[in-house]
Amino acid sequence: MPTYHIWTVGCQMNISDSERLEAALQRVGYSPVDRAEEADFVVLNSCSVRESAEERITGKLGSLAHLKKSKPDTQIVLWGCMVGPDNQSIFKDKLPMVDHFVSPSAVDEVIARVPNPVYSFDEPVLPIADALHPPVSVHVPIIYGCNMSCAYCVIPLRRGRERSRPMAEILEECRRVVARGAKEITLLGQIVDAYGHDLPGRPDLADLVEAVHDTPGLVRLRFLTSHPAWMTQKLIDTVARLPKCMPEINLPIQAGHNEILKRMKRGYTVERYKDLIGRIRAAIPHVSMTTDIIVGHPGETDEHFKATLDLINEVRFGKVHIAAFSSRPGTTAADMELDEALAVPYWKKQLRRVELEKAQTAVVTEINQRLLGKTVEVLVESQAKGNWRGRTGQNQLVYFADDADWTGRLAHVAITRTGPWSLSGHLAGTAPKSVDQVVTQTRAADVIPLEVI
Ligand code: SF4
Questions:
Q1: What's the burial of 120, exposed, middle or buried (CB within 10 Å: 0-12/13-18/19+)?
Q2: Average confidence score pLDDT of the chain
Q3: Which CATH class is domain 375-440?
Q4: Which site from 203, 306, 318, 414 is most exposed, i.e. has the minimal number of CB atoms within 10 Å?
Q5: Smallest CA separation from ligand 1 atom 3, residue
């Protein structure tokens, strides 16, 4: 049987694209292997939001060049955000080991390049729905691309204009994936709350959430990433009203000072953002607000950074993805970075990142400590080193030990240990069992958020 290997870097959208590709490859008769050296078909799903992500991909391509020499029949595909409409011809000269360049999210275009498929596959739209054993928690893309032009962001150049998937197609995918065993769906988009403005009748995310919520067998529903400019009261009220909608909203602010937000071309002010948070918190009790922040954007002074630090301490987010500014060719911020008067030195960016991380760790440590001695409801996803691993409604990672199979079930866990990255405990109403401390100290997987960090 022919084999494939997929290597993925980047955000949830890339992870979701790779899951879909994986299901589609299995449908055409390919089997997964752990190492690229053993595969007939190798796909690198790339990310270009930061220079470091691109460096990882080019490093990997270097090792694949040797593979291509020793096994010239291996087909190598470079997929994802590194491949834009503007750079394919440049890459063709620079990366001779790559056989095919495919734009982000185009699963059917990757499948079209599979050599000698065992079975034909003419339904590329819903591959994840047909995976034999979908994970407990599945990501379903609902809108591709981005119409904004944030100064620092390369995504619109690579992923193109917004394209919403028809509602009926999304609902069918959700129905099929839940029928095969998934319990939680996360609706995905670069700006998820912009969903539907380009569709006939202009349905919005609230309409879609309402419809997906009715999927028989669905236990939990989330969506990400939201943009403050698109978040409506109707959406907030819908999440507040529907019991399967989890109390967690990811709302990137990116900076805590209006001058930097203006430079970033984000389209809102700190005041408007805080008003939005206030309305969300008033409507959705115990909601966990999460965000993304870039430090060291060109023009960021000590005073601007201090405003971001103050915001972290004031708003008390449940999670913050923090990144130092990384200049991306073709963006307006890349031009600003060339101006010495605006560029923030590398060491200062790193210092600010560390300072912000320290402040946020203190906030989240304190938030999680409040759960000590309480019982939380956990949707169990998998086993890790003998312990069960799941998430609360607010998306906190929880570990517990038990002999029964808890995959895909809701467990009530009495919390006996808290930390900034995870919690652990035992099934409520049962005698405590000790949980492997090595696992419980592990930081949650660091996935790059959909928005640029
Ligand atoms: S940061 Fe987000 S909203 Fe802004 S251009 Fe990039 S993807 Fe679009």
A1: exposed
A2: 90
A3: mainly beta
A4: 306
A5: 148
Q: Could you give the residue range(s) of every CATH 2.40.50 domain in the chain?
A: 375-440
269 or 108, greater pLDDT: 269
Beta strands 184-189; 220-224: pairing state: parallel
Q: Which of 74, 72, 95, 68 is nearest to 83 (CA)?
A: 95
Find out whether the beta carbon of 190 lies less than 6 Å from any atom of ligand 1. yes
pLDDT for 29-64, tens place per residue? 899 999 999 999 999 999 988 888 888 898 999 889
Q: 334 is written with which tokens? A: 């890349």
Question: For ligand 1, atom 2, which residue shows the shortest CA distance?
Answer: 451
Centre of ligand 1 to C-alpha 154, Å, is 8
Any ligand 1 atom below 6 A from CB of 452: yes
Q: Which residue from 192, 220, 225 is spatially nearest to 208, judged by alpha carbons?
A: 192
- Quick one: which atom of ligand 1 is closest to the CA of 265? 4
127-367 belongs to which CATH class?
Answer: alpha beta
Nearest CA-CA partner of 335 in 151, 160, 85, 156: 151
Give the pLDDT score at 1. 87
Q: What CATH number belongs to 3-111?
A: 3.40.50.2300
CATH 3.40.50.2300 placement within the chain: 3-111
User: What band does 90 get if pLDDT is binned at 50, 70 and 90?
Assistant: low
- H helices within 285-373, ranges in order? 302-315, 332-337, 346-369
Instruction: Decide if 249 contacts 278 (C-beta within 8 A).
Output: no
Q: Mind listing the pLDDT tens digit for each residue in 166-198?
A: 999 999 999 999 998 999 999 999 999 999 999
The pTM of the full predicted model, rounded to 2 decimals, is: 0.89
Bigger pLDDT: 284 vs 118: 284
> Is residue 444 very low, low, confident or very high in pLDDT (cuts 50, 70, 90)?
very low
